[in-house]
Amino acid sequence: MRITKESLLKNARDVTEKKLAPDKNVLAVFVVGSLLTDDPFLGGTVDVDLLVIYNGEPPRERELLRLSNEIHIDIAYESNEEYAKPRELRGHPWRGWNLWDPILLHDSGRFFEYTQSSLRAQFDSPANIHARATYFASAARETWSEFQSGNRPDSLKFLQAVANAANAIASLNGPPLTERRLLAGFPSRAQQAGQIELTGKLMTALGANNVSAAEIETWLPAWHESFVTAAAQPFNASIHPTRLAYYRTAIEHHLQGEMPLAALWPMLPTWAQAAEGGSLAISQEQAWQQAQAALGLAGAGFEERVSALDALLDDTEELLERLAF
């Protein structure tokens, strides 16, 4: 069966009509994420991101619906209270972009019309662009400060800080970069910001200079085993059997592409999340520890990674200061 954007949208409409819209508390349903781009497929896989705006407290935060090995629908639920002040959303990098230009599938009342029209006014003003970038930079710096205060090495928290630092730059020229394309998409965003040298600093923060594409490829079986083990005892919607092929094909796509080291993302954050669940076998834990050690995300090298993150943030914050109004 040939998979196209049109067929994926049909699936999204069917799920909305049959599963979501009948709930009277569902105020609106949108398609967001990669399906809005010209080429949402990566390694032949794709997810369909739906955002459900719920009247009051949603029944759940997230839900995954498997359509095939290559496709699934990822449904996020959020309370309408999070969108009650559209003007403030202009400075929120995730919610702001979600409402900027989604594909509307369901709207009860005038939620979408009112919220989007208020949000779009001055969304692209320098002040609001700066606010969205600062959102990420501040979060990354806060985590860096925690490590300075003596917090023990935590690779998952550190990786989130690196992603936030990258998106502080990315947000100056578009929506945040998502997990499958973070490293691959960063160089062009850094170039648009006139900061192409930050690509090297980002890779240094990750310890990517310490490993080769060939070494990363040898980690793939261990990553796969860890993901499968963790997904058998669901504790995190990202580490779910439905998303295994979604991540694996992205990793393989990057390894075979022009920027092989981009395979480190999504490999590292998903591996860290799998380990966080505490269900890995001893051999799987050891494989993850070895990968971290090679990158400097654990042991003696961690302090160097934190220093590299500091250097990346220093340059980012200097740029944001120059752009401040």
What is the helix/strand order?
Answer: HEEEEHHEHHHHHHHHHH
Helix content: 40-55%
Overall residue-averaged pLDDT value: 95
**Count of helices?**
13
Task: Supply the number of structural domains.
Answer: 2
Q: What class do helices, strands and sheet pairing give?
A: alpha+beta
Oligomer: single chain
Pick out the low-confidence regions.
none
Q: How does the overall form come out from the CA principal axes?
A: globular
Distance between the termini: 52 Å
Number of DSSP strands? Answer: 5
- Main sheet specs: 5 strands, mixed
> What share of the residues does DSSP label as strand, in percent?
5-15%
Structure notes:
With 325 residues, the protein is of the alpha+beta class. It has 2 domains: 5-120, Beta Polymerase, domain 2 (2-Layer Sandwich); 127-318, no CATH class. 54% of the residues lie in helices and 11% in strands. It contains 13 helices and 5 strands. It has helices at residues 5-20, 86-89, 95-100, 111-120, 126-148, 155-170, 182-192, 198-206, 213-231, 244-255, 264-276, 282-295, 302-323; strands spanning 26-32, 46-54, 62-66, 71-79, 103-107. A 5-stranded mixed sheet has the order 3-4-2-1-5, covered by helices on one side. α5 (126-148) packs antiparallel against α6.
